[in-house]
Amino acid sequence: MATDVHRPVTAHAVRVEGLTRAFDGRAVIDDLRLDIAPGEFVALLGRSGCGKSTLLRILAGLDRDIQGTALVPRRRAVAFQAPRLMPWKKVWRNVLLGLPGRPERAVAERVLDEVGLGHRIGAWPKTLSGGEAQRASLARALVREPDLLLLDEPFGALDALTRIKAQRLVGEVWQRRGCAVLLVTHDVEEAVLLADRVLVMDGGRIAHEQRIDLDRPRGITDPRFAALRAGLLERLGVDTAAEAS
Ligand SMILES: Nc1ncnc2c1ncn2[C@@H]1O[C@H](COP(=O)(O)OP(=O)(O)OP(=O)(O)O)[C@@H](O)[C@H]1O
């Protein structure tokens, strides 16, 4: 029987059990189990098409055609690779979009300041740079004061420098807010840089998990960082021998 329960949990930020999602009779997610603790930062890796975004959409409540259980907090928010801003609304109105009541501009201002975008509060989305648009998208998620922040490759389209800044920002926001984060990424380095735990999805399940017990801030020059990165690359089936030679 299909169950679809989205209700607040306290001991876990996410509790998923026996989760299955099929498209046209093919199970993309297959009896998946996953727990995320409150305040935990989890990164999700896996080859293209393995079902990462599908899982994220289910946790966001955007896909309810599932079997099994997916328990998530009521306060959750999602940001995607594409910032998805409404072009006919100024930045601050985009941030407040969909919030209940009639929140004031000052509410948007606070959260835009938090992501370093306070100076663009009255701008039109089309005038923002890629990094700025991604910050606006993050602000729109944060204004919901989520207990669970779901990020689907939020830095994927950014250039290298902007990406590093955005990664740092997410790390800071997470430490300040104390919300749980599930970050879908293709970037192993990013996962080891930010997460408490890195999951590798394969065959519709969490096939491997790696705890990252490194102090923060983390540096790629730390030999333990390199070892963790190499181990995860191997799990993903990437041949690292070429890099070493
Ligand atoms: N609405 C849909 N209808 C049919 N098939 C779908 C649908 N959504 C996803 N799929 C299929 O499910 C599989 C998993 O897709 P998903 O987007 O979750 O993968 P992903 O791991 O996020 O991939 P990527 O890393 O490339 O973004 C793919 O084969 C995809 O074609």
Topology as a string of helices (H) and strands (E): EEEHEEHHHEHEHEEHH
- pLDDT under 50 segments (min length 5)? 1-9
Strand order of the largest sheet: 5-6-7-3-8-9
Provide the helix percentage: 25-40%
Distance between the termini: 53 Å
Number of helices: 8
Strand content: 15-25%
Mind sketching the topology for me?
Blueprint: E1 14-23, E2 26-36, E3 41-45, H1 52-59, E4 67-71, E5 76-79, H2 91-96, H3 105-114, H4 130-142, E6 148-152, H5 160-177, E7 180-184, H6 188-194, E8 197-202, E9 205-211, H7 223-235, H8 241-244
Parallel strand pairs: 3-7, 3-8, 5-6, 6-7
Antiparallel strand pairs: 1-2, 1-4, 8-9
Bound molecules: adenosine-5'-triphosphate.
Residues 23, 28, 46, 48-54 line the site of adenosine-5'-triphosphate.
Organism: Streptomyces yokosukanensis
InterPro entries: AAA+_ATPase (IPR003593), ABC_transporter-like_ATP-bd (IPR003439), ABC_transporter-like_CS (IPR017871), ABC_transporter_ATP-bind (IPR050166), P-loop_NTPase (IPR027417)
GO molecular function: ATP binding; ATP hydrolysis activity
